[in-house]
Write a structure and sequence with these properties.
alpha+beta; 5-stranded antiparallel β-sheet; two-stranded antiparallel sheet; 2 helices; 7 strands; 29% strand; disordered C terminus
């Protein structure tokens, strides 16, 4: 099997959704598909709606392989750009990009009225995705939290 090189991706955390603020373990409840606090790899979304709905990849309840889903953007927080090293996740990202038109990972820019594709493992791509993640965080949840431990 070939070795996959690490690639940049926008990553977020599923925010807790307390169905009842006074219920047992309300801070640990998540959506139907993902548990609260799940690490989600943001692959893209529906741009025509202002990215209100995101296409994400993450580990669902009681699943051993990553699952692709469409979630409301307001349920995801802590947006950041990270290098993805796990081969299982990288293969799932590539599979999702091949079969779905909403999975683009912002790996392109428009310069001088032409589209320029970016290499997923290039440090410049990481800088661009960090700007995208900061924009999501600011637009949806206010300023980004202190990012001292974002590496990893």
């Amino acid at each position: 099997m070939t070795e996959l090189a690490p690639e940049w991706c926008v990553v977020g955390t599923l925010l807790p959704y307390p169905y009842s603020p006074t219920g047992p373990q309300a801070e640990l409840r998540g959506q139907k598909i993902f548990p609260a606090g799940a690490k989600l790899y943001v692959l893209g979304g529906f741009a025509g709606m202002g990215y209100e709905t995101l296409t994400v990849l993450g580990y669902a309840h009681r699943r051993r392989s990553p699952v692709k889903a469409h979630l409301r953007a307001k349920y995801v927080g802590g947006f950041r750009a990270q290098l993805v090293y796990r081969p299982v996740v990288l293969r799932a990202i590539h599979r999702a990009e091949a079969e779905d038109g909403t999975c683009h990972r912002w790996l392109f820019e428009y310069r001088e009225h032409s589209r320029v594709d970016l290499a997923p493992s290039d440090p410049a791509t990481g800088e661009r995705l960090a700007r995208v993640a900061a924009d999501f965080q600011k637009r949806l949840h206010g300023p980004a939290p202190d990012s001292a431990d974002e590496r990893g």
